[in-house]
Structures are given as C-alpha cells and as structure tokens.
Design brief:
The complex is a heterodimer of chains A (476) and B (219).
Chain A lengths: L1 H13 L2 H39 L27 E2 L6 E2 L4 E2 L5 E2 H13 L1 H10 L8 H10 L1 H4 L11 H12 L6 H22 L1 H18 L1 H19 L4 H16 L5 H12 L2 H16 L9 E3 L7 E10 L13 E8 L3 E5 L10 E9 L9 E9 L5 E10 L34 E8 L6 H14 L7
Parallel strand pairs in A: 5-12
Antiparallel strand pairs in A: 1-2, 3-4, 6-9, 6-12, 7-8, 7-10, 10-11
Chain B lengths: L1 H5 L3 H5 L5 E9 L5 H10 L12 E10 L2 E10 L6 H5 L7 E7 L3 H5 L1 H11 L5 E7 L11 H11 L2 E4 L8 H21 L12 H4 L6 H4 L2
Parallel strand pairs in B: 1-3, 1-4, 4-5, 5-6
Antiparallel strand pairs in B: 2-3
Classes of the chains: A alpha+beta (476), B alpha/beta (219).
Chain lengths: 476, 219
C-alpha cells in the first residue's frame, strides 16, 4: 500500500503534463456520462418499484386469496381463473400478462426490461467470471480516491436517500403498518445507511480503477519489476472493489432479523427472497442486491431539467442564467398554491448561495435571471452546482420542491450547444430527509463564463461577503 | 489535441432518450486505423494524418437498431505498448470488441492472436469480438490476404470484416453487426432461465403447474 501511494505522487510528476491532462479530460467526460447514466437507471428502477408496489400482495390479506397478484382483481373458479406466472409464481389474470405463448406478468416483464436497459444483465454475466475475491485492497482504493481529489469527488455522486424512503418504498406496501413500529424503523435506518455506503462503493469501483491505472502506468516507467507486482495487485484490487460481496449478503440476513423483530407475521415472502439470493452464486447475488438497493435508493422524479454550461478559460466568472421551471408540484398542496424560487449554491462547502426572486402563484415560473460566480477554473475541480427549487410559504416557511446537481469539473464549457438552455429533471434532495415532499417539475438554467473584466473586482468582493453571510441574495 | 475531443457533442452524451447502452472497445496494434475508424463512424470524417492516441478516448453515438435506440460508448484505445496498462483496465467494462489489424501490415495481423488472448484474460466470458482488417482501400499494398483474415477469424471464433475508414467501406456494418450480436447475447443471458426474476415467492408455489392455455380463452 505504501508503494502504491508513492506511485500516486510520482504519477503527477512523471506523466507528461499534456498526456495527463488529456487522459484526465477523457476520464472526466466518462464520469459525467456515467453520472447521467446512473440518474437514468435510478429513475428506471424507481418506476419499476412503483409498478411492483402497486401490484404487490399485501400481507394484510391472505396470500392464497383468489385475486390477481398484479391488479388485485378477483379471480373466478371456473372462468378467468388466472394462471401462474413463470417468473414470480403468482397467479395472474389474463389482463396483466405480456406476451402470448411464453407470457410473463407485467412486473416480471418490466423487471426483465430494466435488466436489459440498465445493463444489469452484463454485470451479472461478468460476475460469473470475476467473482468477489478479497476486501484487502479496498483501503488502497480509498486512499487513492482521497489523495487524488479529482477522483475523490466522484465517490459522492449517488445521493443518500432520506430515511423515510425506506419505509415508503420498500416496506410500506408489503408490511402495512410495520413502519409505525419504532425499533423496526430505527434498525432499518441503520441498515439503509450501510446499504447505501456499500452501493456507493460498488458504483465507484470503476473510478478506483482509474486511480490505479494511472499509477500503474507511471510505475511501468519507473521499473519493470515492480510493474508486474503492482499490476497484479491492482487487478485483485479492482475485482475486490467491483464485487464487494462478502458483507452484502449479510446485510440481507440483517434485514431478515430486523424484519422478524418488527413483526412476527408476514415477513416471510420478502426475506425469503433475500436469503435465497445470498445463498446463490455470490457474484450474481451482489448484482441483484445492487438492483434492489437501487430500488430503495431511487428518489429521482419524472420530468427533465434543461441546462447549459459553457467555459471560457480566459475569464474567471461562472455565469448561470436561471430561465424557468415547468410542472412544479404545488408547495402548498391543500390550497394549490406555489410561490417558487430557485436557489443556487456550490458544493461541497455550500459557498456562494444565491436566490432568484419569488414568483407568486405559478408552477411554471419564468425567471431569466443571471448569476455570476467568480471562480478560477481549477477551483471547479470537484465542485458541483446545486440548483434547488423552493416554495416560499407563509411565515417564512420554505418547502423543498426538487433539485438538480451539475458536476462542474467534467463539464464541457467550450461546447457551443451546452451554452444554450437545456432542460434537466428535478430530483429529491441528496441529504436532508425531513420535510421533503413529492415533487415534479423542472428548472431552466443557463451557466456560462462571462469575460467582462471590469466587473470582476466588484463581483469578487460581493462574493466574499456572500460567503460570510451565506444567505444573502445576489441578483445581477 | 484537447480540442479534437472537444468537438463531440455534449447533447449526444447527455441524451437520456435511449433503450440500451453498450460499451465497445476498439483494440489493435498502433497505426492500424482505430481512431480513424471511430471518427468515420461517429463523425463521418477522415484525416489521413496520423496522430497517436494518448492512453484512451471515447465517443458516443446513438443508433436505432431492431426497434431500439441504442447508445454506444465507443472506447478508442492507444495501440502503443506503453499505454497497455491503461487500456487493459477498460476491457472489463466492454461488452463488445473490435479487434483491428492493417491489411498492409503483416505485423499487425500477427499480433491478432495476442490481442485475442488479452480479451480472454481481461474481459467477460461472452465478450463479442469482431475482427476487422482495415485499410482495404489500399489493395496495391496489401500483404494480408482476405482469406487469411477469414481463416484466423474462424479459428478464433470471431466474425470478420474487411473495411476502410478512408473510403467508408464496411464501417457502419461492422458496428451494427457487433450491436446485433451483443443484443443476442443479452437476450440469451436472461433467457438462460432464472425463474426467480422478480424475487418473489418460491417454494411450494413452484410445483403448481401453469394453467393450460384453454383456460385463458374462457375469459
């Protein structure tokens, strides 16, 4: 491990600057692509979970009841008696089937579709060849990530779901009032935390590889002997990180335990599936777990958010134009009222908070307000722009309507097409879970670098005071 | 150099409107025309000048195939030995490979076996590989007969194309064929039968036979 760290340091000095820049540029582009892809997959899995939840047999009813497992319509004894789906072994009415000869129920079909569309099938196939090996080298990957700040930021991409989601998405439907049981919820919160941290590790494994490969490349230049060694080490390290298996099945066992603590009845179906998987092939169990975790974690919403970012390296001011939002959910659902405004801030650090004006009584507000962040380009590394939409309620009560995150260090500011408005979907908040309401809608933004030299000094000072007072609004 | 990569569209990469995403890797000796092949396919452009790829690069292209929108992330690798450790790290993420040699370069053809071994070592078991003999427009300088390429591809169990990035021969066909066989593998992977697809109840229910079809007709 020590040698690996040395490699890392040498890496920066040994690789030619141009080469390194070039490779890093490609990696950033790839990372950006994956961020978008992860978001797509998350939404996909969320939709699937919704479908499942709608159709799931609840434990409050007798399982053997003659109803269709998907639409809950009663099944007859002689006619319309339904048939058993080969996928899930539930009895399904004729309406909830997809395909003719070799039919599947709607949920099984959707599940299969998601596996295709998310690339899960490939991960499972691959896991057959590269199963979990050892956790030993995980440390190296973590170290590499933190040392190399370009990569370290990548590891925080998937948002941690707020605890309420857990009961909501995963167990509410099947366990009925279980979520009211406090110890159960508590233990599941803990479980969820560990779940998500594991998933993060899995999803960042490819980034770990990058850290490794760069150092390996450099190592090769140094001496051929150590190349062989570190190469094989990274290989082991890679696979261990890719399929961080051993602890994952345990999680499901944990979940089984907590299920049984929470309720003596009814937890059988869910948990049997968990233990079934963990008993199976390790590789595939990992990926199935990951899909399940994805389901729990899936918090993003429908709708899109259009955004454009551009970068001009001969100025140092990031310009963001908030255009408009559409299809926002009502901040005050009872009165059908919504007074939305958009808040911008830089992550991590939450520096430079800026807000638009509040638009009254609209779910499709138009702002067209321009904001400027004076910031050096190299400082954008590891930074994200957070654009959140809030409802400004009575008595200064604020309500979160959704947010969008934009990774800035991978952003291709030079691109002409990216300087114009683009729509982007709003998502649930990454960290705060409390008063989050369901929402849909979009925010229209434009970010670009302005080259006005004159205003720089002034902007810089106001920016500083912004950081001090944190909540001040800056509208230009 | 950096500007060359900057020309590819942000729109294309951030577009989420597609069904599948496939990752494809192009490998082969240095200067066989991997980058040209990719540029021809993704941008429909060709530059005769040789610029060695630094480490790794990729382009994104969305195609419509078999009623599905498929987003391809095509990785272009450096053929040079000194980047080998970088490039092999990407084998694992690739679903399909384009293994390229230059029909005017005997050495690049001889190296095909080695490249195929690399794929076997670093990639998944069902990795789909297409062998491509590039520069088939340069018939005068040909040293590798088409038949030899065909035989080798059969020996290795790959599909085979002769192509030209310069004259745009078989470039699109190569990628489309690869996409097709990845699609096939994809269907096979799940049709190979895992009954527990939804992770729902197993056990006693399994023994219950699916109702005969005529029951459905009654409703």
């Amino acid at each position: 491990m020590i040698t690996d760290c040395c490699c890392l340091k040498m890496d920066l000095t040994f690789l030619q600057t141009l080469e390194r820049e070039r490779v890093l540029e490609v990696l950033r582009r790839d990372q950006q692509l994956r961020t978008i892809e992860e978001d797509r997959i998350r939404r996909m899995k969320h939709d699937l979970q919704e479908l499942r939840r709608r159709g799931a047999k609840s434990f409050s009813r007798q399982y053997g009841e003659r109803t269709c497992a998907r639409c809950q319509r009663p099944l007859g004894k002689l006619w319309n008696s339904g048939a058993v789906c080969r996928g899930c072994s539930h009895r399904i009415c004729s309406r909830c089937r997809v395909g003719t000869e070799d039919w599947k129920c709607t949920v099984c079909h959707a599940y299969r579709d998601v596996k295709f569309r998310s690339g899960e099938w490939f991960l499972e196939e691959r896991a057959k060849k590269f199963p979990c090996t050892t956790d030993k080298y995980e440390m190296v990957g973590d170290k590499l990530l933190t040392t190399y700040n370009v990569f370290s930021y990548i590891s925080v991409v998937p948002p941690t779901p707020p605890p309420y989601l857990l009961s909501d998405y995963a167990f509410l439907s099947r366990h009925g009032d279980l979520k009211n049981s406090k110890p159960f919820t508590k233990s599941m919160e803990d479980l969820m935390d560990s779940f998500t941290s594991h998933i993060k590790k899995i999803s960042t494994s490819q980034n770990d590889v990058r850290g490794d490969l760069l150092s390996v490349d450099n190592d090769r230049r140094g001496s051929k002997l150590s190349t062989q060694k570190s190469l094989s080490e990274t290989d082991i390290g890679k696979s261990s990180r890719l399929f961080k298996g051993p602890s994952l099945p345990n999680l499901f066992k944990k979940s089984k335990d907590s299920d049984q603590e929470g309720s003596s009845t009814g937890a059988e179906e869910e948990t049997s599936c968990g233990s079934e998987y963990s008993g199976g092939k390790r590789g595939s169990s990992c990926s199935i777990l990951s899909i399940d975790c994805g389901l729990l974690e899936s918090v993003s919403m429908d709708g899109e958010l259009e955004l454009a970012l551009s970068y001009s390296s001969d100025s140092s001011c990031l310009e963001i134009t908030v255009g408009s939002c559409k299809n926002l959910s009502h901040g005050d659902a009872k009165k059908k009222k919504c007074h939305p405004y958009v808040k911008l801030c830089m992550l991590p650090g939450k520096s430079g908070k800026m807000k638009t004006t509040v638009k009254k009584n609209t779910t499709n507000p138009v702002y067209n307000e321009v904001f400027k962040f004076p910031i050096e380009r190299h400082l954008l590394l590891g930074k994200r722009l957070q654009a959140s939409v809030w409802h400004s309620g009575t008595l200064r009560r604020k309500l979160f309507l959704g947010e969008a995150l934009f990774p800035l260090d991978g952003w291709r500011f030079e691109d002409k097409t990216s300087q114009s408005f683009n729509w982007y979907p709003l998502c649930h908040k990454a960290s705060e879970g409390g008063a989050v309401e369901r929402h849909g809608g979009e925010v229209l933004l434009r970010v670009k670098f302005s080259s006005s030299e004159q205003g720089e000094v002034m902007q810089l000072s106001s920016f500083k005071s912004l950081q001090e007072k944190d909540t001040r609004r800056q509208i230009i | 150099m950096a500007s060359a990569t900057a020309t590819y569209g942000q729109k294309e990469s951030s577009d989420q409107n597609f069904d599948y995403m496939f990752k494809i890797l192009i490998i082969g000796n240095s200067s066989v025309g991997k980058t040209s092949f990719l540029f021809r396919y993704a941008d429909d452009s060709f530059t005769p000048a040789f610029v060695s790829t630094v480490g790794i690069d990729f382009k994104v292209k969305t195609i419509y195939r078999n009623d599905k929108r498929i987003k391809l992330q095509i990785w272009d690798t450096a053929g040079q030995e000194r980047y080998r450790t970088i490039t092999t790290a990407y084998y694992r993420g690739a679903m399909g490979f384009i293994l390229m040699y230059d029909i005017t370069n005997e050495e690049s053809f001889n190296a095909v076996q080695d490249w195929s071994t690399q794929i076997k070592t670093y990639s998944w078991d069902n990795a789909q590989v297409l062998l491509v003999g590039n520069k088939c427009d340069m018939e005068d300088e040909r040293v590798v007969a088409g038949e030899r390429g065909r035989q080798l591809s059969e020996h290795l169990g790959f599909q085979f194309f002769e192509a030209s990035a310069k004259d745009n021969i078989n470039v699109k066909q190569t990628f489309e064929r690869l996409v097709d066989i990845i699609c096939e593998k994809m269907s096979e992977s799940l049709d190979a039968g895992d009954p527990a697809v939804t992770g729902a109840k197993q056990g006693p229910q399994l023994t219950e036979q699916p109702a005969p079809p005529h029951q459905d007709c009654a409703c």
